[in-house]
Amino acid sequence: MSKIFLKAFSVFILLSLFPGCSYKMGSPVSGGSHLHIRVKNDSVAPLLGAKVDRELRKNILRNGSYVLANGPGDADVFLIVTLTNYKDSTEAYRPGDTLLAAGLNLRISATVELNDVRGASMHQENVRADSSLLRSISQVPDDSMALQALAERLASNISLSLLNQAW
Question: What domain range is 113 assigned to?
Answer without folding.
Answer: 27-87+108-129+138-163
